[in-house]
Amino acid sequence: MSSEKIFVSEFNKEAGKKLKMPARVTVFDSTLRDGEQLAGVSFKTEEKLEIAMALDKLGVDIIEAGFPVNSQPEFDAVEKIANEKLKAKVCGLARVLTPDIDACLNAGVDIVHVFVSTSDIHLKYQMGKTREEVLKMAVDAVKYVKKNGRECIFSPMDATRTPLEYLLKVCKEVEKAGADRINVPDTVGVMNPSATRMLFGKVREAVKVPIQTHAHNDFGLAVANTLAGVEAGATDVQVTVNGLGERAGNASLEQVVMSLHALYGVRTNIKTELLSETSRLLERYSEVYLPPNYPLVGKAAFAHESGIHAHAVLKAGQTFEPIAPELVGQKRRIVVGKHSGKASIENALKALGYEKIEQTLLIEATKKIKELAEVKKQIYDEDIIAISEDVIGQAAKTKPLVTLEEVTVVTGNKITPAASIVLKYGDEILKGAGQGVGPVDAAANAIQTILGSTVRIKLTEYNLRAITGGTDALADVTIKVMDEQKNVFAANAVNDDIVMASVQALLRAINDAINYQKRTKEKRK
Ligand code: MN
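Output (structure tokens, whole complex):
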């Protein structure tokens, strides 16, 4: 990775001299297994296949595709992925039980990942077995996998709450039985980085096979603990895209990989410039959306609003960026808000199609935009256009493309709400109808039907506020929509009719989305 794109602290290098870091780390991705175990997440078979291909393209070494014994659909998905002839090795999960392992073998995976609880808490409440019984089951399971000619990863579940002596005994015995890799999971996310370093040091001394980390983020330490594990001898990391996983999730693939690359100088096989698109794919299929401030791949991870920062990064990115955004497939964004300075406003105006702007007018526009930002949380392009037209007297090159001609809705307690809508798109008149759970939903569906593939948007937020009291109150609707590239457009409209206000707000957001797409296309040319 080229160093002119990494602007991290020199202290990392200094501290690194004392560490025995591996030259390369193996990335084991569990997005399709632990990731899917996050409450509310469920991938369809086709989605799993697409995710597996994306992970393969990204360059992960091992894909944990699922838990085949769990259900027929899960078996089918694992089998399909195993048949894809991916570069990555495909792994299936199994308890230390013959039917589980058989399901993995029949699904055709390269690696069987067998696990059994070893902590006293789990032995007592979950398994109802003695330590000796569990040890024998573990050894037998590993032998069974090896007898069938597959690679075997062994996990002592809840390892971090297992007495050290017994844990090391299990690790040594499964190694003797033929385990190719041993994973030391922090199943409940209860370790701190120092403890993790200590524990991995002990396991490293006890066995020779590669050891893996599997950290959970219950205290927000999954990434730190994963890196601590590597510092102490782990050569494999179990991670998930976007940190998806049980409860608070697993260690995030993007954060672990980029930390290894940028902060430790340790290589992985990951094509880091694909991290953002992989993250977005998983957002879409998991429907778990990242907060803007999510590290590296979050929408605001390379966004600058404050005047001082924005001015500086426009001259030289490394002033306020740790790495070049393109290294993770991101783009720098200069956001206009109350902290903006002249340089950001000029940048925004240029992006909107304004050319030469006189300095005194620019200063005036900046002042007005900042005043508006004091009262409005977010400044949208239309605000900038409105103010600039006022101040500069120059028309923006963006005009609404889609306008409303007619809207009719029918609703009631005995019928499915339906809407028919007539739009003007350029010079064309377009008609369409839609149904929905309510009149607003029906209208939104009708609009989407009309626009079809021109712009695909998803309503992500809908806020309705009554401005005055009573049944004749004005409806103030604020909505947010997201396009396929995950750009968010917000719009607001006020009307004495809820449906009308909603439709107007929706059309404003759609116009923004279309104009934005046009602008970015023009820029690319
Ligand atoms: Mn887990």
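Residues 303-395 form one domain.
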